[in-house]
Design goal:
Elements lengths: L3 H12 L3 E2 L14 E2 L3 H12 L19 E10 L5 E13 L6 E8 L8 H24 L12
Antiparallel strand pairs: 1-2, 3-4, 4-5
Length: 156
């Protein structure tokens, strides 16, 4: 079984266009150089395909963040009971990177046994992904646009 943290590591590698780096939940300065594990051209193609998931007609359109391109994959897994047979319980997930044009963040959302009558990743975990990632991007852009004194920088 793959853990959400292991899956996040894969998506972080996708977000760096094939460069694998040790996973860190805090900023590492200077960044670790990493090791190329996939050709950049291949990963850029995959990211481009993943963008379509959050576009109209895609299975993860509920993850869409207005004004941003995101690259995601949604999924749904049926659980197995103690006897090894499938049961009517599910795990929904949405994983991806943003912004798709120049990924800065990777995120995995896993909903274990959703209870609201819906259980597909596109219906359950995608909106959560969009809310979390949208907030993260907004926070990052706010910080990037502010000087140390909290005032917004304006280039004239």
């Amino acid at each position: 079984m793959v853990t959400p943290l292991q899956l996040a590591r894969v998506y972080a590698t996708i977000g760096s266009y094939g460069i694998y780096r040790p996973l860190s939940i805090t900023k590492v300065d200077p960044p670790v150089p990493g090791e190329r594990v996939f050709p950049e051209s291949l990963v850029r193609t995959v990211v481009h395909m993943m963008e379509s998931v959050a576009l109209p007609g895609g299975g993860g359109v509920k993850a869409a963040i207005k004004g941003y391109r995101i690259a995601i994959k949604t999924g749904t897994a049926k659980k197995v009971g103690p006897d090894g047979r499938y049961i009517n319980k599910y795990i929904a997930y949405t994983a991806g990177v943003a912004p798709a044009s120049h990924p800065r963040f990777a995120l995995v959302v896993v909903i274990n046994d959703p209870q609201a009558g819906k259980y597909y990743g596109g219906a359950v975990s995608a909106p959560v992904f969009g809310a979390i990632m949208g907030g993260r991007i907004a926070h990052h852009e706010h910080r990037a646009g502010c000087a140390g004194n909290g005032r917004k920088k304006v280039n004239l």
